[in-house]
Amino acid sequence: MKQRQQFEGIIVSNAMQKTVVVEVTRFATHPRYHKRIQIRKRFKAHDEKNTYKVGDKVIIESAKPISKEKHWRVVKSI
């Protein structure tokens, strides 16, 4: 069985019911200028019990589609 993809990020919004928005930051090297650049991406993740708050550092993992834009779930807080 394949291991699910996981990311570490910070919760930036919890205004929706059972959903949090997690911002994942990673670094990559620019192909031409070879400078490290910061890449940020936001994921909507499932939070069944609404336990996580804005500013929490969490780990999210891929899941089967839960709704139109939600394909991730929160695994645990760091």
Structure characterization notes:
- Helices cover 0% and strands 54% of the residues.
- With 78 residues, the chain is mostly beta strands.
- It has a single domain (6-77), classed as Nucleic acid-binding proteins (OB fold (Dihydrolipoamide Acetyltransferase, E2P)).
- A 5-stranded mixed β-barrel has the order 1-2-3-5-4.
- The model has no long low-confidence stretch (mean pLDDT 96).
Order of helices and strands: EEEEE
Radius of gyration: 14 Å
Q: Fill in the CATH topology.
A: OB fold (Dihydrolipoamide Acetyltransferase, E2P)
- What is the number of domains? 1
Structural class: mainly beta
CATH architecture: Beta Barrel
Going across the biggest sheet, name each strand in turn: 1-2-3-5-4
CATH class: Mainly Beta
Number of helices: 0
Tertiary shape: globular
What are the low-pLDDT stretches, counting only 5+ consecutive residues below 50?
none
How many beta-strand elements? 5
Q: How much helical structure, as a percent, in the residues? A: under 10%
